[in-house]
Amino acid sequence: MEYKNQKVVIIDYGMGNIGSIDNMLKYLGVKAIISSEPNVILDADKIILPGVGHFDRAMTNIKELGLMDVLKEMALVKKKPFLGICLGMQIMCESSEEGTLPGLSFINAEVKKFDFGTDSKLKVPHMGWNKIHVNKESDILEGLDDDSRFYFVHSYFVKCQNEIDILTKTTYGFDFVSSFQVDNLIGAQFHPEKSHRFGVTLFKNFLEKY
Amino acid sequence: MLRTRIIPILLLNDGGLVKTVKFSKDRYIGDPINAVRIFNKKEVDELVLLDIGASRNGTSPNFTEIKEIVSEAFMPVGYGGGISKMEHIEQLFNIGVEKVILNSVIFENKELIEEAIKIYGSQSIVASIDVKKDIWGSYKIYSNSGKKKQNISLDSCIRLIQEIGFGELVINNIDKDGTMQGYDLDLIGKVTAMLDIPVVSVGGAGTITDFIKAIKAGVSAVAAGSMFVFQGVHRAVLISYITADQLEQELKE
What is the ipTM of this complex? Predict the structure, then answer.
């Protein structure tokens, strides 16, 4: 299928940065559907789950919109290509130190807080451009390598149970998981929609290769 | 390793791109969309848009214009100017702005900011403080693009920023704006020592050496206006950029 005709749904659950992702997809020739309607989401070819803000608020919104089962169906049963970005990636995990609610639990991982102590020169949030270290080969990373840089802004990071799930790591005080992939499920801690040609490459791979 | 962010600041007024000296003498320098396209090609780390017209006059942000600019920008964009309501903030995030930059509202409605931080997270809510030394050499705080003097000391103002819970601070010395003679390093040193959050310096950058001095004084990111839009002693309009790689090279030497 010509990738420009596919139905890409950006989940609109009141958690920010939708405009930037929509702009990026438009640039790549895809007219994305921004929606919180279960029927529209269930009809999607691909799902993008964005998110900026608080973990529990995100999970509460998803529950209130009746999207828990819908997202599970698309991610785990229909196995549609599913890209979580920033908080969207974090809520694909089981739990977070930011909140008390369980996550979507698509991935065997938990979310932890950066804590370097007050003496450290390292500020939280981790904000700015940083590099990725490729941990495993994947179509989503085609054209990207250890010199590729992405824009990050986050105070919490993902800790995967299984090393094999880790797609890339990034160094900030220590190596944390900057992206993961388990089959059709992909999560990126960075913001590819705001990462120049590196982000363009990642989105293009997501549209073309899945 | 996190790279030091280098941020061009573009001033908007009445739909055009302008540059000021000491917050006045607006000079029209071109079309903002065109400038953003060039900065996009140069892969700048981040971009800041400040609508000084909206700020001076207290008018609402021009969402149509901002949307048009942001749709061309594949880097994080911060916007400031005329933001006074939650609907403004919501609308800005919806059209693809990553950070909202607040100044006047800090002194008028801090509850609004605290609420916005709860919803959107502190990383996307940025404070901007403009200062100017009085004739006795003590710092005074100004809002509304330098139009209105606030009755608060610099120390109290910085404590207020911390207390509200902002994720970042942009600090500017009005008397350095547009001079390209270097940042106010005393101010930067004082402010960064008081704050845990990232501080961005603006006002006065003319060379890469100015960036290095500011980084050594404690900032997390450096911003500049004139340096990235003017060229040569006659200040011909020419958009340029210094990459983090160039900066790192200089830092090593």
Answer: 0.87
